[in-house]
Amino acid sequence: SYGLTQPPSVSVSPGQTASITCSGDKLGDKNACWYQKKPGQSPVLVIYQASKRPSGIPERFSGSDSGNTATLTISGTQAMDEADYYCQAWDSSTAEVVFGGGTKLTVL
Amino acid sequence: QVQLVESGGGVVQPGRSLRLSCAASGFTFSNYGMHWVRQAPGKGLEWVAVIWYDGSNKYYADSVKGRFTISRDNFRNTLYLQMNSLRAEDTAVYYCATVRGGSGWRNDYWGQGTLVTVSS
Q1: CA separation (Å) from B32 to A41, A43, B35, B52, B101?
Q2: A14 CB neighbour count, 10 Å cutoff
Q3: CB atoms near residue B73 (< 10 Å)
Q4: Which residues of A touch B45 (CB under 8 A)?
Q5: pLDDT value of residue A1
Q6: Best label site of A26, A62, A94, B94, fewest CB within 10 Å?
Q7: Please, what sign has the CA dihedral across residues A34, A38, A39, A42?
Q8: Is A77 touching B (CB cutoff 8 A)?
Q9: 3-state DSSP assignment of residue A67
């Protein structure tokens, strides 16, 4: 079955740039999305189609992809960005999805 | 504004059944596919099932196939998840989410979640 691999944790200092990667076979063809998940809250879409940012999401969130790897970049990271981040891949013919295991972003 | 409100969660014994609902408002429900996604305590997000906008197609994660059934009522703007033969490992917060395609597949709206606890 299809799988996505994320690093379990990433640490960043306030104001610096955080990068979180997501790897999967031919991920570039699978409409990669990124979600922010804070404890007790619902997931929030921060990036879709690898690099598009929904309205209302700060410009410091950006995404890119290259072949088998998608990357979420947070520039000028703020304390409020501390959360778990999940990548997601889509089977566009059925709308089935797979989530990565999640990455805990710590801002310290 | 878009609202998704899940209900129906609770404590249930292993082997029993439970039906979750997701009431949608603020958008044309019948135009959107819908997902159920869950998160077990201390674990990551896990996709559970999808139903197309008109209910014509449904797909399930292997972990729930044959036990869970996703359905929808486009007149009542409500999504359902019938969960049978529940197991301890089904304990999770269950979220419904809109499926948007076209200019980039994504789950752009999520409910607040409903907690299902399977325990004797």
Answers
A1: 23, 19, 10, 7, 9
A2: 12
A3: 13
A4: 35, 37, 43, 86, 99, 102
A5: 84
A6: A26
A7: negative
A8: no
A9: coil
* Chain A hits for B112, Cβ within 8 Å: 42
Q: What is the C-alpha separation between A56 and A77, in angstroms, rounded?
A: 17
Among candidate residues B112, B113, B96, the one with its CA nearest the CA of residue B33: B96
Q: What is the pLDDT of residue A54?
A: 96
Specify the pairing of strand A69-74 against strand A61-66.
antiparallel
A44-103 pLDDT, tens digit each: 999 999 999 999 999 999 999 998 999 999 999 999 999 999 999 999 889 999 999 999
Q: Is A99 on the interface with B (CB under 8 A)?
A: yes
Q: Phi first, then psi: what are they for A80, rounded to 5°? A: -70, -10
Q: How many CB atoms lie within 10 A of CB B86?
A: 21
User: Kindly report the CA angle at B83 between B79 and B89, in degrees rounded to 5?
Assistant: 125
A108: Cβ contacts below 8 Å, ≥ 6 apart: A11, A12, A13
For residue B60, the SS3 value is strand
Backbone angle region of A79, left / alpha / beta, with phi > 0 → left and psi within -120 to 50 → alpha: alpha
Is B110 within 8 Å of A43 when comparing Cβ atoms? yes
Inter-chain CB proximity B45 and A99 less than 8 Å: yes
- Could you count the other beta carbons within 10 Å of the beta carbon of residue B85? 13
